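On clarity, I found the account of how folds are encoded harder to follow than it need be. Since the whole study asks how a given chain folds, the encoding of that fold should be made plain. For illustration, here is how one protein appears when written out as sequence plus structure tokens:

:::
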Amino acid sequence: MELRGNRTDEQGTWRFAVYTYHHFAWNLDTLDNQEAVKFDIEGAGYTDVSELKDRTYFKSHYVRTPGGALFELAVTHEDGGWDCDESPEELGKQFMIPPHFEQDREKIMAQLEPITVED
């Protein structure tokens, strides 16, 4: 892999390209721990921290560094986490979409390459 520095873009800019990442995520176990880490990050001067977002399976704060990297401070949802919308025995057998994207299911599915999963 090759790493290239770009000194022409403003600090904090980012874009998708080959070999780039969208974000890094950490599971911080509890909402209290998440809030403490968020407080520490803000205390270190990082002010671009989101409000708490409910992502169905987990709750997260997001922080973007001045260099553009996005970090997620996640806590698995207390109402079931990954199996909140399907049983543990059925996990991964259906393509699950958060409720707020359900109206776009056909459009989303049309963009995906089909895969076959054997039982």
Remarks:
- Helices lie at 31-43, 105-110.
- The two ends are 36 Å apart (CA to CA).
- The beta strands are 24-27, 53-54, 58-64, 70-76.
